[in-house]
Known about the structure:
It is built from 5 helices and no strands. By secondary structure, the protein is an all-alpha fold.
Amino acid sequence: MRRVPLVQATMEGWAxxxxxxxxxxxxxxxxxxxxxxxxxxxxxxxxxxREPPLAPPFDPARLMFADADLALILGAAGxxxxxxxxx
Length: 87
């Protein structure tokens, strides 16, 4: 299992929340802390860190490839564009 720095991830998520969201999360955390044991509370917190609003915003630009990246990938796969090789 991948190790998640819960304190750091929680503080980063907390910084993205507005005042109303912070209050709502704090109340939910206290309610969970009262009823759950230590391991279940860690699992609860990990689930919250994967979902909005604590999860980091998704940047679709991370999925985009530049033309040079595509040429490199196709070249490595042996499917390079023959027109690009002659230029």
